[in-house]
Design brief:
The complex is a heterotrimer of chains A (about 475), B (about 100) and C (about 475).
Chain A: H1 8-16, H2 22-35, E1 42-45, H3 47-62, E2 73-77, H4 104-111, E3 115-120, H5 154-161, E4 167-172, H6 178-184, E5 187-190, E6 210-215, H7 218-228, H8 246-251, E7 259-263, H9 273-288, E8 292-296, H10 304-319, H11 338-349, H12 352-365, H13 371-394, E9 397-401, H14 417-421, H15 428-433, E10 437-445, E11 448-456, H16 461-474
Parallel strand pairs in A: 2-3, 7-8, 7-9
Antiparallel strand pairs in A: 1-3, 4-6, 5-6, 5-10, 9-11, 10-11
Chain B: H1 5-14, H2 21-38, E1 62-63, H3 73-77, E2 83-84, E3 87-91
Antiparallel strand pairs in B: 2-3
Chain C: E1 3-14, E2 51-52, H1 53-65, E3 69-70, E4 73-74, E5 76-80, E6 90-94, E7 100-101, E8 104-108, E9 114-126, E10 130-136, E11 139-143, E12 150-156, H2 163-179, E13 192-202, E14 212-217, H3 220-239, E15 247-252, E16 257-260, H4 262-265, E17 273-274, E18 281-282, H5 285-294, H6 299-310, H7 314-320, H8 324-337, H9 341-359, H10 370-381, H11 387-398, H12 404-411, H13 419-432, H14 434-441, H15 448-458, H16 465-476
Parallel strand pairs in C: 14-15
Antiparallel strand pairs in C: 1-12, 1-13, 3-7, 4-18, 5-6, 5-17, 7-9, 8-9, 9-12, 10-11, 13-14, 15-16
Helix pairs in contact in C: 1-5, 2-3, 6-7, 8-9, 8-10, 10-11, 13-15, 13-16, 15-16
Classes of the chains: A alpha/beta (about 475), B alpha+beta (about 100), C alpha+beta (about 475).
Chain lengths: ~475, ~100, ~475
């Protein structure tokens, strides 16, 4: 078996057993990144730095200081600030930006001894569901290169699915980890809002953004989450509560007595019947493992997309005001005055989708419309959150499809923003409610992967990972590799 | 609800975005559609519902009043498009 | 037409913290440009704000001092607009739920009466940087050191009725924030700034006229002048058949005029919304109680105590309590002296304040500390020196010649109180001036002063004046 077919957990064992060094592993993945450069999964590759970190990790291992992640290669979504390294957020406006500091997530995984291979492609400022809004061009889905890998963490998903990296970070504001994980056949985890520090993660919508993981298995995600999560004094919205031993917890997971809520709203029109079948099959497997299925209602789920498309653009319109061509980033040339500097630097620096969202948000917050849009959306957000609260009095976890369809073709939906937005119909609610959620590969539809989504109660990551781990013990969808990789 | 070109131009100015003439008609249509789409929120049963600004019910943590940041001006200004004498330069601001 | 002037003030007090409101960068004044602007202050991608506890403490202290309600829950909002001195493109401020609501400040009017001015609210926000308009090849330079400095914005009710009242309010406000040790009150450095909303209406009219907001009022003198000027401008506009436009006007102290800042107005729509990076600020009753217990004696209470227990006039008490340092100094002098508050008050308000003004010092940096001044005054009380000689001693002490006793000894200024010695000198003076003596004795009483002068001259002013008077009267008439 090729090294890269291994999960992170297996690589960790291989490193511990001395089957290969981190340097060898790193060279292997760097070679694969180069070999599959056409996927356009990476914006920046860091061969020299990666090899240097790998050697340092090997040294650490020789000194007996290695942990489970030491020497494991990793890719960061290019939304995480990395000191001295290009941090673009997929945008022209940051195409020359070298962050002066490391994000907390970057710092923590570095401290765990992980080896940074490079920064992955993404929708510009994480605004997109297909990776097509990236200034660096679309990223391909390794299962079918004419299709999108999903987004916004499309580069991370494609990289892990194509085994160009054993694991990658992502961020999820409305499904940006789960949706690409589903469309590329890998495991994606969006933790509870506040579980992973947002410091150094370039903000899209601050009350929705959460950093997470794209991995080959729940077990891999558990290892990385343990190192990533935890209180950060630099983030006021970070939660000060202990980080469980996720990897230990999932080993002990037992699905006996588990109540799985299945909302009818997740299976209404718009869902591809084959996707529905794959998801129902997965639920059947979980029943077989001891869980019971319970019908639940999320009556306001249908409003989650419009709610999101008020709240997220409103916050984004303000978050993206700092990109003004004054202190860093792209600045238009030959400007006539200050207003011209702002309008042209931003007009030329941002792509169409980002501009659309900034304008939508600006409109929603503007005088005379605030109550009708922003305030109203915040109230509906509460209704959606209450739906989950009620569901969780009856069940432990809520499940359904991650996406309505498998991956669509590059260019298929770019003309119609709303059709594109509806792609996130199942994932957005978890962000609105701040709940942890995962996508786990659960089948292939016409050769394309689809995902089972699981949404848990606040801080129930151990439970979600445990369920996914048991499911992956009983199935092999997560081990399937796209042909040619 | 349909937005007019003038309205979209006003929003673009407020957001400091230059939109070319070619782009403008597309944006007018897109934004009108998006606004139409989110209009469905108006019918939601929100009487007595408290607006939710945060996913978690927590309150602000306070930090001690300590100076923890050293001067890193040179590092920060490596990213700056135009600097002189430690100042960021912008086209002349007229008050 | 008889116009009534309506003024409301917005005071921005920079809070005296070591670090900024949302970052760990220093707030010290006068550093080289952008050396005290960290990644958070500069609005780098990905940075997040965390609120400084002392900022909250100071706001609570202020709220308690003006008898206001401390909001148990307040919200930080973003005020969105683009300007080069505003790195994030929004200012973090408080909008719908400020930390302090309601309250009042009593000001003393020119006629000595007291007027209570309502305070609508006080809220926390971050300061902006500074644009330097010196010519950098036709460009403006931006210094962001000040960005993120904590501000308490204190908004008064529109209850001030003249420029004089506005100045009295601001002076009282400065005294208060200095007492509370939440702001240094330095208007030159911009630690205390003031915008004024000014309108006029026919006297008796209930509805408010259209107001203009005056900015850039950075001294008491400018505030008075700018408001006067603005009132005249508005009267001219209205009496000339025009209408006052709601706008922001900038005071130009060089030209002594206000001019419109329409450029800043253009369709501003600040799009306030709750800052999702910050959570609701919850202030527990225990926190408020602890601050209440730690409050210093406030200027009003101190002033009243000086009147009641020291027998000072209201005016003297107000002057002496204008700053906490001055009041502390005065009380230390009284303590050192073991009484004599009126003598202490006269010296502190007279010679000491004069010397401080002359050298441009504040009382904390006085060349004569309270114990030294008490030492000097003690020598007046025990008649070692006269009040007049004391002024000489004071100047010598100010010049660094040592404490009062050292100066008195080294300069030989001890008062002559020996009756025999004074009598001898009187005899000499009488012998040296026979003509004057004869005139005096023949009824020219006015010459008494001449003899006092001669005796004092002969003793270089050291003879106890009271004794000289008594002995001289006795001798001259014998």
């Amino acid at each position: 078996m090729d090294i890269h077919a291994s999960t992170l957990s297996e690589l960790s064992a291989g490193l511990a057993a001395g089957e290969y060094s981190s340097e060898e592993l790193t060279r292997h993945y760097l070679g694969r990144i180069e070999q599959h450069a056409d996927l356009n999964a990476f914006i920046t590759v860091l061969p020299e730095q990666a090899l240097e970190s790998a050697r340092a990790a090997d040294q650490r291992r020789r000194e007996g200081e290695a942990g489970p992640l030491t020497g494991i290669p990793l890719a960061h979504k290019d939304i995480f600030c990395t000191r001295g390294i290009l941090t673009t957020c997929g945008s022209k406006i940051l195409s020359n930006f070298k962050s002066p500091y490391d994000a907390t997530v970057v710092q923590r995984l570095d401290a765990a001894g992980m080896v940074l291979l490079g920064k992955t492609n993404m929708d510009e400022f994480a605004m997109g569901s297909s990776n097509e809004t990236s200034w660096y061009g679309p990223c391909q889905n390794p299962w079918d290169e004419s299709r999108v890998p999903g987004g916004s963490s499309g580069g991370s998903a494609a990289a892990v699915a194509a085994r160009l990296a054993p694991v990658a970070t992502g961020t999820d504001t409305g499904g940006s980890i789960r949706q690409p994980a589903a469309l590329t056949g890998i495991t994606g985890l969006k933790p509870t809002y506040g579980r992973v520090s947002r410091f150094g993660m370039i903000a899209f919508a601050s009350s929705l953004d959460q950093g997470g993981i794209l991995a080959l298995s729940a077990e891999d995600a558990a290892h990385v989450l343990g190192a990533m999560a935890g209180f950060d004094a630099n983030d006021s919205t970070s939660v000060d509560r202990p980080v469980p031993d996720y990897a230990g917890d999932i080993a002990a997971a037992d699905l006996g007595g588990l109540r799985i809520g299945v909302p009818g709203e997740f299976f209404e029109e718009g869902l591809d019947p084959d996707v529905a079948t794959a998801v129902r099959d997965a639920l059947g497997v979980l029943e077989g493992l001891g869980a019971t299925l319970v019908d639940v209602e999320l009556p306001h789920l249908g409003l989650s997309v419009p709610t999101y498309y008020v709240v997220a653009p409103a916050e984004a319109s303000s978050n993206l005001s700092r990109f003004d061509g004054v202190r860093y980033g792209y600045r238009a040339e030959g400007v006539s005055d200050l207003l011209d500097l702002y309008r042209r630097s931003r007009g030329e620096g941002f792509g169409a989708e980002v501009k659309r969202r900034i304008m939508t948000g600006t409109y929603a917050l503007s005088a005379g419309y605030y109550d009708a849009y922003y305030l109203q959306a915040q109230k509906v957000r509460q209704l959606i959150t209450d739906d989950f609260r009620k569901a969780f009095t009856k069940v432990d976890v809520v499940m359904g499809p991650t996406t309505p369809t498998p991956a669509f073709g590059i260019g298929d939906k770019t003309d119609d923003p709303i059709t594109m937005y509806l792609n996130d119909i199942y994932t957005i609610a978890a962000n609105l409610a701040g709940l942890p959620a995962m996508s786990v590969p659960c089948g292939l539809v016409e050769g394309l992967p689809v995902g089972l989504q699981m949404v848990g109660g606040h801080f129930e990551e151990s439970q979600l990972l445990g369920i996914a781990h048991r499911y992956q013990g009983a199935t092999d969808w997560h081990r399937r590799m796209p042909e040619g990789y | 609800m349909s937005l007019t070109r003038e309205e979209v131009e006003k929003i673009a100015l407020l957001a400091r975005l230059e939109i070319s003439d070619e782009e403008m008609s597309g944006f007018v249509e897109n934004l009108s559609n998006i606004i139409d789409f989110v209009e469905q929120l108006a019918a939601a049963p929100v009487d007595g519902v408290t607006p939710m600004a945060h996913p978690l019910d927590m309150h602000q943590r306070l930090r001690a009043d300590d100076v923890s940041e050293a001067d890193q001006r040179d590092l920060f200004q490596q990213n700056a498009p135009a600097v002189e004498a430690g100042l960021y330069l912008v086209p002349r601001v007229i008050e | 037409m008889d116009w009534e002037v309506v003024i409301g003030l917005e005071v921005h007090a920079q809070l005296r913290t070591r670090s900024k409101i949302f970052s760990g960068a220093s707030t010290a004044f006068g550093a080289a440009p952008n050396t005290q602007a960290c990644a958070i202050d500069l609005g780098f991608p990905g940075v997040l704000p965390v609120l400084n506890k002392d900022v909250v403490r100071m706001a609570v202290r202020f709220g308690l001092a003006i008898d206001a309600k401390i909001s148990p829950r307040s919200i930080f909002a973003r005020k969105n607009y683009f300007y080069p001195d505003l790195p994030k493109g929004y200012q973090i401020s408080q909008y719908e739920l400020p930390v302090v609501e309601g309250g009042h400040l009593d000001i003393t009017l020119e006629d000595g009466s007291t007027k209570r001015i309502g305070i609508t609210r006080a809220h926390l926000e971050e300061d902006a940087g500074k644009s330097l308009h010196e010519d950098f090849h036709g460009m403006t330079g931006v210094d962001l050191n000040r960005a993120g400095t904590p501000l308490l914005e204190i908004v008064s009710e529109p209850e001030l009725r003249s420029a004089g009242e506005a100045v009295a309010y601001l002076k009282k406000m400065r005294t208060l924030v200095q007492y509370l040790e939440i702001c240094d009150g330095n208007m030159q450095e911009g630690s205390l700034r003031c915008d004024a909303n000014v309108s006029i209406r026919p006297r008796g009219e209930q509805t408010l006229g259209t107001r203009a907001e005056l900015k850039n009022l950075n001294s008491f003198r400018f505030i008075e002048k700018a408001i006067h000027h603005e009132i005249e401008r508005q009267i001219d506009v209205i009496e000339g058949g025009g209408k006052v436009v709601q706008e922001t006007r900038l005071y130009d102290s060089d030209r002594d005029e206000t001019r419109s800042m329409r450029s800043k107005e253009e369709a501003n729509d600040y799009r306030y919304f709750p800052d999702p990076d910050l959570l609701p600020l919850v202030i527990e009753p225990a926190f408020v109680e602890a601050e209440k217990a730690a409050l210093p004696e406030l200027p009003g209470a101190k002033q009243q105590r000086f009147v009641d227990s020291f027998g000072l006039s209201t005016y003297d008490a107000e002057v002496l309590t204008a700053t906490r340092e001055m009041a502390d100094y005065f009380e230390a002098v009284v303590d050192g002296l073991g009484g004599e508050p009126k003598l202490a008050a006269n010296w502190v308000m007279g010679d000491l304040s004069g010397a401080l003004n002359r050298d441009g010092l504040d009382v904390a940096r006085s060349r004569i500390d309270a114990a030294m001044l008490a030492g000097l005054l003690r020598r007046i009380v025990d008649k070692t020196i006269s009040g007049k000689i004391a002024k000489q001693v004071f100047e010598a002490m100010w010049a660094g010649e040592g404490d009062a006793d050292t100066v008195i000894e080294s300069r030989g200024l001890r008062q002559i109180t020996d009756t025999g010695a004074i009598e001898t000198i009187i005899d000499e003076v009488m012998a040296a001036n026979p003509a004057q003596l004869e005139q005096y004795r023949s009824g020219k009483d006015k010459l008494f002063g001449f003899f006092v002068g001669q005796v004092m001259k002969a003793t270089q002013g050291k003879a106890n004046p009271q004794q000289v008077n008594e002995l001289l009267r006795k001798k001259l008439s014998s």
